[in-house]
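User: Modeling request: complex.
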Amino acid sequence: MQEYRPIQILLVEDNLDDVTILRRALDRAQVPSELHLVRDGEEAVNLLFTGHDAEGRAAPRPDLVLLDINTPRLSGLEVLQRIKEDDELCTLPVVMLTVSARNEDVTRAYRLGANTYVQKPVEFKQFVRVLEVLGEYWFEVAKLPPKAG
Amino acid sequence: MESNAIRVLLVEDNPGDARLIREMLGDARGIDLSLEEVDRLETGLDRLKSDHVDVVLLDLGLPDGNGLETVIRTQQQAPGVPIVVLTGLDDEVVALDAVHAGAQDYLVKGEIESSPLARAIRYAIERKQVEEDLRRAIAELERKTELLESFTYSVSHDLKEPLRTIEAFSQFLLEDSADRLDEQGRDYLQRLTQASARMKRQIEELLTLSAIDRQPAAEGRVSVSHAVAETLEGMRFVLDQRKARVVVENELPDVQGDEVWIQQIVGNLISNALKFNESEEPFVQIGVRDMTPKTATFYVRDNGIGIDPEYHERIFGVFQRLHRREQYDGTGAGLTIARRAVEAMGGRVWVESQAGAGAVFLFSLPLWTETTAHLTTAMAA
Amino acid sequence: MTTVAMLGRPAEILLVEDNLGDVRLTEEALRESKVSNRLSVARDGVEALAFVRREGGFAEAPKPDLILLDLNLPRKDGREVLAELKADEWLRKIPVVILTTSKAEEDVLKSYRLHANCYITKPVDFEQFIDVVQSIEDFWLCIVKLPLEGANGK
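Assistant: Request completed. Predicted assembly structure:
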């Protein structure tokens, strides 16, 4: 069993409509989580590597990253590569969450070390269902790496 | 003056034959020629490398060339230059082969006269030009088709993104603010939701179509029995809901094709049979009707509303509908998808039906045989 | 959604597990699955690697879409198997879920460091075990997009 604190999720997503949809879907799926949003790849890398957000506030290491592929400045796949090549950060679970269903993207993501790859469903109901299963799987069934790592 | 002359390169090792050609070209009237002679293939290929030549007169019996190979090597050296082959009396078969291999014409030594020679030269140049134009047109067409396909794919893919937003936010509006809207407002919202759902289906179908056009079909052995069983399994919910009965009437043979596509075809035809059906208990029969040594023709028969023969072609067009939306649901790409998939596997699909009397959809596919297996492996090798 | 459910063929799962009781339970849980699947079992680490590399008697072995890997295995340890899978240019794209009795933080951390896609502790309770397998199936076969064989495949 995991500890009783909300799961810290870092969401890397440029599209604010999608952010609203995701927040609502997380809420609907009753995933006990706190969402931290960054809008582009570079901001994501900075936050993860420095432990501070763009305004200089302390940003603790998240439990899980939801990473879009199509992000400005640094693409999601580049962010993924940076995380997985780093000795400290490589244990951080990264879930790709993106519209792309191209096998090329899927395969590249897995080869770069993505923990899993989920396509954003078009329908909101499906989105809720995806997050329910994802939330249950990662936060109840799976064992996340201890934070100290 | 020199620049307008047709430059002829004669590759001929027999001095007598060469002289004859030279004299005949000198006699030819109304054609301005400049002739260069070489007696070895290698020398000829060198000339082609360095100089512009309008036409090559090529002997097939050169000391350093061997029949057809002479033509092939010349063509490789100068793909745009027409070739007229010179051959002996008893060698017309080889000459014809040379034409198949890409030469524009051939002349039999000993039968050559001055004016036919000049005509052959002009013809060869002309014919080569036409061939070149055709080749270029085909290449251009292929390029455009490819562009169009990738365009369809990216358009339909990119359209999904805003669509998700429209769909989600109209639902949020419905959930959060429906009680603050009057009846008309709710009606508008309802229509918005329906339209976006329809658009989503259409995009999915366009994506399927573009996927079929983009990737070649797998060419494995497919058990149609298995494909039909899997399709029915996947449709169980829909079939139960419609209280539909589906019967497979005889044993279905194995074909050569792509299992996923065949499932898609069968699925689309069954959906179609249920959609345009007013019976309380829709009845669908599936089976094989004709078998030739190479092809099997399958049918999907229904007890639905039938189709007037006038529309038998139109129904296969993308997003074509014969009925009002309220009457029969559907976007109208299912049959298009089925047709493209069948055709991509080398078959045909058509319908036999009268209005009010049910419909029989038929599709043919190449049968699986051991020989096709060999052929596929041979081609892949 | 395009997931394994739309492959047009059963999902291929490789279970690497030496405990026959756990094998049977996993089989049972997957048999009731919504998604058509085929379970292959490797009983130790050496066999698992031969299976995915199609060596020895495994020339005809299916390419797994998902690997469930125990850590404590005879002949070759699960950690070594994981390291070899993830070091292989072609095999590394196959998701590997660690399914083990170990709760040790060290094992969790080491597995993620070796690029395990996920780490799950086997519950001792029989019903809970079934639930866990079904949750794995729910997630990996219904929600996730898995890499397909094709242009990038072997």
